[in-house]
From TrEMBL:
Domain Response regulatory: 3-121
Organism of derivation: Nonomuraea antimicrobica
Domain of life: Bacteria
Positions where 4-aspartylphosphate occurs in the chain: 54
Protein known as: Response regulator transcription factor
Keyword Transcription annotated: yes
Keywords attached to this entry: DNA-binding, Phosphoprotein, Transcription, Transcription regulation
Alphabetical list of Gene3D superfamilies matching this protein: 3.40.50.2300
Start and end residues of each HTH luxR-type domain: 148-213
PANTHER family with a match to the protein in the record: TRANSCRIPTIONAL REGULATORY PROTEIN NARL-RELATED, TWO-COMPONENT RESPONSE REGULATOR
Amino acid sequence: MIRVLLADDQPLIRSGFRALLDLEDDIEVVAEAGDGVECVALARRHLPDIALVDIQMPVADGIEATQRIAADPALAGVHVVILTNYGLDEYVFNALRAGAAGFLVKDIVPEDFLHAVRVAARGDALLAPSITRLLIDRYVTRPPDPGTGHRLKELTNREREAVALVARGLSNDEIADRMLISPLTAKTHINRAMTKLHARDRAQLVVLAYESGLVTPHGP
């Protein structure tokens, strides 16, 4: 059973998502929050698999709620999915940097919404390669962080290569083709890199790769 926490300051929005989720046999809404502080408190109380978090809420917004959840070791199993009206923007990028597994636009069709919840519950990031490339082009402009670069020394050469290709927006199959390995081996390299770098998911790998200078937005 996939346990879901809904966090949105608009009761009508929450009701709509809840009505949709309650129809599914494998999904259960365990709590609802109207602001970011309540969201974090309910996450600690119920330990959901997924927290669907509105980016703009009172008291504490979705970015701050994501930061608090990501920083709490007791909530390591909670995957935050950001809800937004506007698609990929700087607020969403900051939420991804804070530890969100991905984002959904609120006008998503019901079938895609339910599929996304199940994908996030498996621990997969909700970032298609095309979205990764868009995120890179628009928002990854900071100079490399030496501290982040030092963390990459824990990776093997193959793990570092796989992370660089993830950051370029390649899928696991494309990474396997580029590295002349199987998709399963590619996934293994990526998972080990996430463990060593303490990255919650693929989205954070992308951010770490660029912040460390492993790859640059317009490099080869």
